Amino acid sequence: MTADELSAAVRRFVEETVLPHVDEWDRRDDLPDSALRRLVELGLPGAMVPTEYGGRGLTVADLVPAWRALSHGWISLTGAVNPTGLATALLVRHGTEDQRRRWLPLIGRGEALASFSITEPQAGSDLGRIETSARARDGGGLVLDGEKRWVAGGASSDVVFLMAEMEGSEKPSCVVLPADGRGGASWQVGELDKVGYRGVESAAYRFEEHESPGAEILGGHEAIGSGARQMLDALDVGRVNVACRALGIVDRCIECAVEECTTREVGDGLLGQHTHAQLRVGELIARRAGVEALTQKAAAAVDERSELARELSTSAKLVASDTAVWAVDAAARLAASRSYAAGDELARLRRDAPQTEIGEGANDALLLALAKPALDRQ
Ligand SMILES: Cc1cc2nc3c(=O)[nH]c(=O)nc-3n(C[C@H](O)[C@H](O)[C@H](O)COP(=O)(O)OP(=O)(O)OC[C@H]3O[C@@H](n4cnc5c(N)ncnc54)[C@H](O)[C@@H]3O)c2cc1C
User: For ligand 1, is residue 361 a contact (CB within 6 Å)?
Assistant: First the structure.
């Protein structure tokens, strides 16, 4: 399936299956197995696995239309495929050849899904506060202690790429942790309840002397202490994914606004015959065009691994997410009370859109990171 065929298939899935059921799935906080299976059949989670490891070798830019189309239906679906994409980037860019051969074919065939875990109760943007620790286990593997939060897909994924401080190193490392033993006494799992972005598992972990014979450091022993660089590098891919979530929300807001304008009568005609409503729709369209262009430019920079990849992917995520939150408000002003009814699409988008301002880095923390190199040059 080419990238164009993939996005056409995703659009069909969204029209035929997602949009008719998303309200019910959101209400039940349930991303049905059948929907996840369909994403796997479409090859979305492992789409970036290189062809030499049995995958399709699609690029981030190839996936932008599919991620956007999926988000037009429900951003929880786009979020559900994201961690496996991050894992693919981690393995391709930083894994040893053995690690690539172990995981990439499974991911490419949809037989393994991954989670990506940095956040802890006391540490999100500030990686200096990571406390989860790892040490070598007698006989091979690692022993883990600590807590993790907000692990997407973290109750059912097959492998977790997890930031931890390896004994003897002051900088964090990326641990490749197979899911064996998850849910037992030494690796306890809870699920966090959320107001939006529902259906996606958001796990909380507690490790107590968890012995994992299969755990290893991404990139091998010499990569101990490189976890921050490796995982932030993969987040360039994730930030484009989040920008696509936001773009899909903006697409849907425009549809809701146009529908309201062309069906609702106010004053002496349709809402859309009034100038203020026309201005609002025009502004939605103009801002979407800006976000779309920036997201495509960021995706190309991430694929090229250009030196602007971090700045552009961060900027795309920031501008897109702020636009999504604004767009829901703009459309809701036109729909007014309808947008406040439980079960209304705009009511759900009002809960979903802020996730894009937090996921892959809180927007304010990202603004600080963007400003730092520019200010340090002075
Ligand atoms: C639904 C959802 C899903 C998520 N999925 C995952 C996941 O799969 N894996 C994962 O690891 N994480 C995940 N996260 C966590 C997310 O990535 C973090 O919430 C995010 O990185 C921000 O961290 P924080 O919430 O601790 O906020 P903080 O990092 O504490 O930021 C809060 C505020 O502190 C301020 N601040 C931050 N840094 C600085 C600084 N250097 N100087 C001064 N002020 C600063 C800013 O004002 C910022 O807005 C998820 C979160 C949510 C809500």
Answer: yes
